[in-house]
Write a structure and sequence with these properties.
This protein has 465 residues and is α/β, with parallel strands linked by helices. It contains 14 helices and 21 strands. It starts with 11 loop residues before the first strand and ends with a helix.
């Protein structure tokens, strides 16, 4: 049986309860029987799902939303100090708990797998959650996106395994003590919190150092940042078991071949001197490698490889990770969360492989001023993989504008790389623009971490009219 409710979490209040990370913790606590409350900026399906679990969800932020008997207030790094509920918590002397500490408390007493990396965390965590569920192990899980099957980003399971997406953006992944940790890749991102690659590597080293004695680090053998982490960890943590995976000849779990088959891939591994072949039901080499990482982590927990391989074939995707939104007038519209150049390139290459001779049209919304300042040129070059692109204004999320940082940085780089790019400043105009560009047989990819995802249904409506 899984542990119950930590004492501090009996009556939690979440500020920003509708967020991907926050809502997952709130759902698990509600399922365990806690009296959950919280607030969010607007109504959403997530808010409705939380209410269905018995949580109280207020819309808007106000001091009055915080109950006097709240046992703690849970916040993420995105919550500002002047939030009225946070100010009220100080007045009432209610303990404030960071999201990562709350998640760590839920993982206590369970065998845990923490999935880290600059890209691919959500997909890999989801693959594990689905595969372990298929094997009857009923895991608990907390993921940064909704599984396409269960349609939720978190669940309390009765089994003894907890699978969690581990966020490096604010170093909060250093709060966990996993039995198995996965590091998919290590790249420079989150420029507001990291000034250099050396800082990134130090952060991941600290994360690896939190693995429990006797635990395992599963790490990519292909990506340069990950291989550098492996080198460092083997020097500083010689007692830690390190399992590498990938296409490199010296990988412990070696990928022999990845064969694209339309919107799926067939993966053949060399494992213990024997071949093992299984199907991944999403397109793209990077998703196939995510599945291999998941397989290696499950093996580290003692689960038979053949069982895991079969169960991984049941994974059908995560919302916003190359999710088909629909088809109209012979045009398929697909949604992608990609917002870093590496992610953009991987998804565009995956779709190019799946599209055959079809044209690939992209609607890209840059995410964060700081990321655009540092990586705008690389984003533009990635868009050159599409046949044509529409680029929106920057989605600010938690950031204030930076002088001189606009989507023009991306558009100029894309144009210089030979891309066909159109700037659209009013998001409401995009469906008509795309409908005017698209022809039967084309693929349209809405791409970015902001509200560009809302455009898929509207584009389909315009195509249908």
């Amino acid at each position: 049986m899984a542990p119950g409710i930590p004492a501090a979490m009996e009556r939690p209040h979440f500020i920003g309860i509708g967020g991907a990370g926050m809502s997952g913790i709130a759902k698990i606590l509600a399922q365990r029987g806690a009296k959950v409350a919280g607030s969010d900026a607007k109504e959403s399906p997530t808010a409705d799902a939380l209410r269905a679990l018995g949580a109280t969800v207020h819309i808007g932020h106000a001091a009055a939303h915080l109950a006097d008997d709240a046992s703690c207030v849970v916040v993420s790094s995105a919550i500002r100090a002047d939030n009225p509920e946070l100010v009220r918590a100080a007045e009432l002397s209610v303990p404030v708990v960071h999201r990562s500490d709350a998640l760590a408390s839920l993982m206590g007493g369970l065998r845990s797998i923490a999935v880290a990396g600059t890209h691919g965390k959500t997909t890999t965590t989801s693959m594990l959650a689905v595969a372990l569920g298929e094997l009857g192990l009923d895991p608990s899980y907390a993921i940064g996106g909704d599984l396409a099957g269960p349609g939720t980003n978190a669940a309390h399971g009765e089994g003894d395994i907890f699978v969690a997406e581990a966020d490096e953006s604010d170093r909060s992944f250093q709060k966990y003590d996993p039995d198995v940790a996965i590091v998919l890749n290590v790249e420079l991102d989150h420029h507001a919190n990291y000034a250099s690659m050396d800082e990134i590597h130090e952060s991941f080293e600290t994360f690896a150092g939190k693995i429990v004695p006797g635990g395992t680090l599963v790490v990519s053998a292909d990506q340069s940042g990950a291989t550098e982490l492996t080198r460092r960890v083997r020097e500083t943590l010689p007692a830690l078991t390190v399992v590498t995976y990938g296409e490199a000849e010296d990988a412990d779990v070696r990928v022999h071949k990845i064969t694209p088959r339309g919107l799926t891939s067939e993966v053949t591994l060399v494992l213990g001197g024997k071949f093992l072949t299984f199907t991944v039901s999403v397109p793209g080499r990077h998703y196939a490698l995510n599945a291999v990482a998941a397989l290696a982590a499950g093996i580290a927990l003692g689960i038979p490889a053949h069982n895991l391989a079969s169960a991984l074939g049941k994974y059908t995707g995560v919302k916003r990770r190359l999710q088909l939104k629909g088809e109209a007038a012979g045009v398929q519209v697909i949604d992608s969360y990609a917002h870093h150049p590496t992610e953009m390139t991987a998804d565009l290459e995956a779709m190019r492989g799946a599209a055959s001779e079809a044209r690939l049209l992209v609607v890209f919304q840059p995410h964060l001023f700081s990321r655009t300042r540092e990586l705008g040129t690389e984003m533009g070059r990635a868009l050159a993989l599409a046949d044509a692109s529409v680029v929106l204004d920057i989605y600010p999320a938690r950031e204030d504008p930076l002088p001189g940082v606009t989507s023009a940085l991306i558009i100029d780089a894309a144009t210089a790389a030979g891309a066909d790019v159109t700037a659209v400043h009013d998001k409401a105009e995009v469906p008509a623009v795309v409908a005017g560009m698209a022809k039967p047989g084309d693929l349209v990819l809405t791409m970015g971490a902001g509200d560009v995802t809302d455009l898929g249904p509207r584009i389909l409506d315009h195509l249908s009219s």
